[in-house]
Amino acid sequence: MGRSGKLPSGVSAKLKRWKKGHSSDSNPAISRHRQAARSRFFSRPSGKSDLTVDAVKLHNELQSGSLRLGKSEAPETAMEEEEVAPALTEKSSGTFLSGLSDCTNVTFSKVQRFWESSSAAHKEICAVLAAVTEVIRSQGGKETETEYFAALMTTMEAVESAESLAAVAYLLNLVLKRVPSPVLIKKFSDTSKAFMDIMSAQASSGSTSALRWVLSCLATLLRKQDLEAWSYPVTLQVYHGLLSFTVHTKPKIRKAAQHGVCSVIKGSEFMFGEKAPAHHPAAMSTAKFCIQEIEKSGGSKEATTTLHMLTLLKDLLPCFPDGLVKSCSETLLRVMTLSHVLVTACAMQAFHSLFHAKPSPGTLPAELNAQIITALYDYVPSENDLQPLLAWLKVMEKAHINLVRLHRDLGLGHLPRFFGTATTCLLSPHSQVVTAATQCLQEILKECVAPHMADIGSVTSSASGPAQYVAKMFRAVEEGLTYRFHASWSSVLQLLCVFFEACGRQAHPVMRKCLQSLCDLRLSPYSPHTAAVDRAVGAAVASMGPEVVLEAVPLEIDGSEETLDFPRSWLLPVVRDHVRETRLGFFTAYFLPLATTLKRKAMDLAQAGSTVESKIYDTLQWQIWTLLPGFCTRPTDVATAFKGLARTLGTAISERPDLRVTVCQALRTLITKGWSSPGPFVQTLVLPPEADRAEVSRFAKNFLPILFNLYGQPVAAGDTPAPRRAVLETIKTYLTITEPQLVNGFLEKASEKVLDPASSDFTSRHEDTDSTCPSPASTKLLLGLLSLSRLSVLDLVVALAPHADEAAISKLYSTIRPYLESKAHGVQKKAYRVLEEVCASPQGPGARFVQSHLDDLKKTLLDSLRSTSSPAKRVILCTKEVSVGARKNAFALLVEMGHAFLRFGPNPAEALQRYLVLIYPGLVGAVTMVSCSILALTHLLFQFKGLMGTSTMEQLLENVCLLLASRTRDVVRSALGFIKVAVVVMDVAHLAKHVQLVMGAIGKLSDDMRRHFRMKLRNLFELVRKLLPEEYQKVLVNIRKAEARAKKHRALNQAAVEEEEEEEEEPVQGKGDSIEEILADSEDEEDEEEERSRGKEQQRLARHRSRAWLKEGGGDEPLNFLDPKVAQRVLATQPGPGRGKKKDHGFKVSADGRLIIREEEDDNAKLEEEEGAKGEDEEMADLMEDVGVRSKKHQKLKQKEADDEELEMPPQYQAGGSGIHRPVAKKATPGAEYKAKKAKGDVKKKGRLEPYAYIPLSKTKLNRRKKVKLQGQFKGLVRAAQRGSQHAVRGA
C-alpha cells in the first residue's frame, strides 16, 4: 500500500501536467449557474419569498452540522438536484442576506459593514432585517426610519426567543437615532411601556444581549423627549427604571445603563435649544440616587456599588447644580476616609473631571471650589506613595486653575500654601513625583499668575494682597536652592526659569537675591547645572531687562583688573542671546563706554608687547558690541535714544572693519524688528511706531553714503566677501524706510557714476602717474578697476530702483539702455537686473512706468538681442546652460510665456497650440537646438498637462518618438526624458494607444544607445509595464531577476574583499510630484560600473581629505589660538619629514640593502594576477563550451592547461648509481606513513592519530578552470571511503 500523499511509482509520468503559467485554466467552460445568478443578483424576487423563520432555522442547523441526510436519500437527492438545477439556481437569490443587500436605508449599513458569517447573532440580525424589509416592501412602504421603527416594534412584541429579541432590539437601537423626534414624543407611552416590560422580564435572565440593547433604546427614547414631557411623573418613572440598572452586577448591562443615563443628562435635545434650562430636570433625582447608593454600600468591605456610583459621578458631577455638587462632594470626601485605595482613586477622578470641565458658577461657586481645595489638604498622600500623590497633585492643579478663573484674588490667596506643599514633593525619592510637581507648578504659573501680573503691579517684600501672594510663592520656590533640595536642583532651576518669564518684569525687587545665588552656583566648580543656570538667568534678562540683572549681579569688568579671571564674563553671551524689548539708551550709557575702555586697554597692551592680554581685552570689547543686535530688537526708546547712538554706529561702520558686520546686523534688526507688535510682557511702547520709524529714517542721509562708499571699495586680497554682502543687505533694508526724494537724489548720483566711472576715488588711486604713456599691464589693471567700479555702482542702482518715483525711473531707463548692448557681460547682466527690479514691481511707480513704456520696453529688449551673450539670445538654448540659475530662469520664463498665451488666447488648448508652434522649428535645427527644444517641450508638457489637448499631446509624443532614431546621445537623452514625463502625465487610455509606437522606437535604438541609456530604459519599462502585453511582462520579470542576481553577486564579492556591507539602491523609481523628481536620472546612475570601479579610490581620497593636522609652534613656544594667522597652521597634509609612503616593489630587502627574490613567490603572484585578469574570460569560455561553441581563445587556454599538466607528470627515468644519477629524495606525500603495504587504504598505528584521507588545499584550487577536476577528486575520495566501509562490513 502506497504512503499517504504520494503517487505510486510510475504513475506520475503518465499524468498530464499543466504548462507553466496555465494552472488556472481548469475552470469549467459551462457557466450556466453563474450566469443565472449574475442575471438576478441586483433584481428583487417577483414571487412570494421562501424566507421564513423555519427556513432560517433549518439553514442554521445545516450550517452547524446538526442535520445530516441519510445514506439512502443521498443518491436520489443528488439526482433531483441534477434535474432541477436551473430552477434552484434561480431561487437561490432569495437567501437570508437578500434583505440586507437590497435594503436601501443607510441606517443599517453598519450591519453589513461589520458582518461576521460565523456569528449566530449576526445571522439572526440579518434574518430579522430581511423579514422586516420584506414586510415593508410588500405593503408598498418607502423604507423610511419611521416604517422600520413601527415594523420592528411590532416584531419585538411577537418574537419569543432571546436571540430574536436581541436582534430586534439591536436594529431598533440603530433606527431610533434617526426617527423624527415628534414621532417618538407621540409614541412615548406605548414604546416606553414595551421597553419596560422587556426590561422586567429580562432583568434576571442569563442573556444580556437583549437587555443591553433595550436599555440603549430606552435612553435614546428619553433623549428625544421635550422639556414638557419631563414634567410628567411617568417620564421620571421610566428614567428611574433606566437608572436602577446602573448598579447591575453584569458589566455590559451596567455600562449600557450608565452610558444611557449620561446621554440623557448631557445630550437631551432640549438642552441645546434657545430656552434650555441650566440643568437637566432629572439631575436632582440622579444625584440623590447616587448619594443613597454610596451611603448604602459605602461601609462594606468590597465597596463594589460605591465604585460603580463613583464611576457614574465622574461623568455627571459637572452637570449638577451647586447644591447637589456640594452634597456629592461631601459624600466623596466621606468615602475617602475609608482608606480604600480604589475608592480614593475613583473619588479623585471625580474631582478631577469636575475641575477639568471648568463649570459655571451655577454649578461650582468659587467658595465651594476653595472649600474643596482646603478639604483635600487632609488627604495628602505620603511622599513615598507614588500613584496617589501623582493623582492628588493633578487634582489640585486643576482645582487652583479653576478657582483663579472664577475668582482671581481668592485663587491667588490659596496658591502659596500649595506651592509650599508641592515644593516639599521635590524631596520625594521618586523621579515621577518630582517631575509631576515641577510640571504642576509650571502650569499654574503660566495659567494663573502670568495673565494677571499686569493688574497686580509691582511686587515687593512689603506689598499686600495679590502681590504678597506672589512674593510668598517665589520664596517657596527659592527655598529649593538650599542644599536640602540639591538632588532636585535641575527641577528648581526650571521652575525659576518659568517664574522669571511670568513675573520678572513686575517682581524683580524680590528676585535680586535669587539672581545672586544663581551666579554663585554658576561659579561652583564641576557644577552639572551650568546650562540650566544660563537658561534661568537668560529668562531673567528677557523679562526684567539687562539693566536690572546687571544691577543685581554686576559684570565686574572695568579695564582695571589685576587678574584676567573675569568671573562673570559668562554673563555677556547670556545677555546677547536673551536681550530684547529693553532700553536702547542703556547700551549707549553703560556698554559703549565700557567697550571703548576695553579697546583702549587692548591697544595699550598691544603696544607694550602683551599680545595675549591684548587679545583677551579685544575679545571682551567685541563681545560687548555683539549685544547691540539684541538691544535693537523691539527697543522701547528708539525715538529718544537713537540720535545719541547714530554717530557712533556710523564711525564704527566706516572705521572698524571688525565691527562692520555686527553693526550692519543691528541696523537691519532695528528696521525690521524695531517696531513689531509688543511681546507678552510689554504693555505699551514709549512712543508710537511712526515716531520710531521717522527717527531712524531721519538718519538715512548719513548712513547710506557711508554704506555706498564701503560697497564701492574693492575686496582686499585675503578678505572674505561677507562684510560686503552685509553692507549691500543693509542698504536694501534701509532704503525701505528712506524718503523717496532722498532715494531719487542717490539714484541720480549713481547714474552719473555709471556714466563716468573715472570719478571713483579708488579708481584714480590706481592710475599710472604717466597717463600719457601707460604700460599694457597698467592699462589692463585700470580697465579691470573701472569695470569693478561700474559693477558696484550698478548693484547700488539695482537696490535703489524699486524705491524711486516714476520720473527717476524714466531717467534711469535712459541711462542703462546703452549698457544692454555692452560687450562686458557683467555690466550687461547688471543692466538687465535693473530692468528686472523695475518690471517686477506689482504696484507703485514701477508698475506705472511699465504700463506707460510697455511698447518701448519690448522694442528695446528685442533690439538688444543682437549684442547679448550667445545663450541669452534664445531662452530655449539656456535650458542647457552650465549655470543652475540660468537654467532655472529659462524654464520659469518658458512657463510664464505659456501663461501669457493662456491669458490672451481664446481657449487653453488653442492658446497652447499657438505657443508650441513657435518651439517646433527648433526640432529641425542643430543638435544642441533639437535637444534644448525637447527639454523645453518636456517642461511645458509637465506644467500644462491639464490644459493641453489630447491631440496635441499625442502629436508631441509621435514626433519625439521619431527623434529617438537620432545618432546623437544628447537628443536621445532628451527624447527619453520627454517620453518618461509623458508616461507620467498622460491618461492611461490615451497612452495605451501609443505604447506600441514607443516600444517600437525604443527597439530601434542602436546597441550603443541601449547600453548607454540602460538605466533610463529600465525605469521607463517599469513605468509602462502594466500596459505591455503578457510576453513583455515575462521579459521584464526575467530582466529584474537577472539584475537582482548580478547585484547580489557583486555585493557578496565586495563583502568578501572589504568585509563590510553597503546599502543597495532601489531599482525602481517612483513617480514624483515635480518634473525634477520624474527626470531624476543622473549621470552617476548611467555610469554606475565606472563609478563602482572608482569607488574605492574616491573613498580613500575622501578619507584623506577629511583629515587635518595642526602644526604646533617652534620649540617650547605654545600655540596662540587668538593669533589671526592661526588658521594657517591647520594643514591638510601631515607635517614633518618621512610622511611619504615608500613604494613597494614586491621584493623584500635585506639589512644591507640587497633585494631578496624568490621564484616561487613570483610565479604564484603572477599566476594570481593572470587568474584575476582572465576570470571573466574563462567564465564566458566555460559557458560557451556548455552550448558547444569553442573559441580560439578557449582552445589556447585548454592547450596551456594541458601543457601545465604535462609538465606536472613525473619523469619516466629511474635514478640509480652515483654522481648525477644518484637517487634524489622525493617530497613526502601527506598521509603516506599511513598507507598499507599489502592492501588498499590506510592502517592505524599505535600511539599515533587515526588516519584521514584528504586533499591538500592550496590557492591553485581556487582556479575556476580546474573546478570540475577538483570536484572529481572529492567525489573519488568519497566513493573510496564508501567502498572501504562496505569491505569492512562484509569482513565483519
For this entry, give a set of tags.
mainly alpha, two-stranded antiparallel ribbon, RRP12, 60 helices, 1292 residues, two-stranded antiparallel sheet
The unreliable regions are 1-15, 38-47, 65-99, 676-688, 759-788, 1060-1071, 1081-1086, 1138-1142, 1160-1194, 1201-1211
| CA-CA gap between termini | 35 Å
Mean pLDDT: 77
Please state roughly what percent of the residues sit in beta strands, choosing from under 5%, 5-15%, 15-25%, 25-35%, 35-45% or over 45%. Answer: under 5%
SSE class:
mainly alpha
How does the major sheet shape up?
A: 2 strands, antiparallel
Helix % is 55-70%
Distinct helical segment count: 60
Q: Whole-number radius of gyration?
A: 47 Å
Strand order of the largest sheet: 1-2
Shape: extended
Count of beta strands: 4
What is the topological layout?
Blueprint: H1 32-39, H2 53-64, H3 73-83, H4 85-91, H5 98-102, H6 109-113, H7 120-138, H8 145-158, H9 162-176, H10 181-186, H11 188-202, H12 209-223, H13 233-244, H14 251-267, H15 283-297, H16 304-316, H17 322-335, H18 341-356, H19 366-376, H20 386-406, H21 408-424, H22 431-449, H23 453-456, H24 466-478, H25 489-507, H26 512-522, H27 530-544, H28 546-552, H29 571-578, H30 584-607, H31 611-625, H32 628-631, H33 638-655, H34 657-673, H35 689-698, H36 700-712, H37 722-735, H38 740-755, H39 761-765, H40 776-800, H41 806-816, H42 825-839, H43 845-852, H44 854-863, H45 884-904, H46 908-917, H47 927-943, H48 950-963, H49 969-985, H50 988-992, H51 995-1003, H52 1007-1012, H53 1014-1024, H54 1030-1058, H55 1075-1078, H56 1083-1086, H57 1088-1105, E1 1109-1110, E2 1130-1131, E3 1148-1149, E4 1155-1156, H58 1159-1186, H59 1192-1208, H60 1267-1291
Antiparallel strand pairs: 1-2, 3-4
Helix pairs in contact: 1-4, 7-8, 7-9, 8-9, 9-12, 11-12, 12-13, 12-14, 13-14, 15-16, 15-17, 16-18, 17-18, 17-19, 18-20, 19-20, 20-21, 20-22, 21-22, 21-24, 22-25, 24-25, 25-27, 26-27, 27-28, 27-29, 30-31, 33-34, 33-35, 34-37, 36-37, 37-40, 38-40, 38-41, 40-42, 45-46, 45-47, 47-49, 48-49, 48-51, ...
